[in-house]
Amino acid sequence: MKVSSMTQSLILHFGEMGSKWGLNRTLGQMYALIVLTEAPLNADQISECLQISRSNVSMGLKELKSWNLIKLQHIPGDRKEYFSAPSDVWEIARTLVVERRKRELDPTLSMMRDALLQEPGNDADRYVQKRVQEMHDLMEMVTLWSNELQGMSSEKLAALLKLGEGIGKLLDMKDKLLPNKKA
């Protein structure tokens, strides 16, 4: 299987970025190839194109499936398994947010909750709990916001992001728009 020089450059870049995104280089390259190829690919095609071992491809496909980033497909008359990425990039982004939250945020929130339930033994522990509470509250807000975004359509997400600095201006005007009424 041949890919264009543009596709090859992007695959190499995704491989380099993979480690920064929580994936290894090979996984980043595999995912880039799957995302950037219109037709579903089988493991042999991926192996040939990226010049990596078939066993490495199999392990990578299992990892990408565990992240819910690829879909398994069967082609009539062919016994091989084929893989594709969602066509909607917003779906890919939503999936990445959910999977990263499950792997990173949720365990950290759980550990923080445990720390907050402990009785502080001294002033240093009380300070630690105060800081942990602040971090926990921030992470909870991020989680709630993330949950809200997960339920939005791709069109609404795009519109929200297009607001850009307009959101900051709106927040600056919030006191004029929503005056704080004190009884």
UniProtKB/TrEMBL annotation:
Tell me yes or no: is Transcription regulation among this UniProt entry's keywords. Answer: yes
Q: Could you tell me one molecular function GO term of this UniProt entry?
A: DNA binding
- Tell whether DNA-binding is among the UniProt keywords: yes
Alphabetical list of InterPro entries matching this protein: ArsR-like_HTH, HTH-GbsR_regulator, HTH_MarR-typ, MJ1563, WH-like_DNA-bd_sf, WH_DNA-bd_sf
Superkingdom of origin organism: Bacteria
HTH marR-type domain sequence ranges: 21-80
Alphabetized, the UniProt keywords read: DNA-binding, Transcription, Transcription regulation
Recorded hits in Pfam families, A to Z, give: MarR_2
Query: SUPFAM superfamilies recorded for this chain?
Result: Winged helix' DNA-binding domain
Protein family membership: Belongs to the GbsR family.
The molecule here is called HTH-type transcriptional regulator
Query: Which classification does the entry list for the species?
Result: Bacteria, Pseudomonadati, Pseudomonadota, Gammaproteobacteria, Alteromonadales
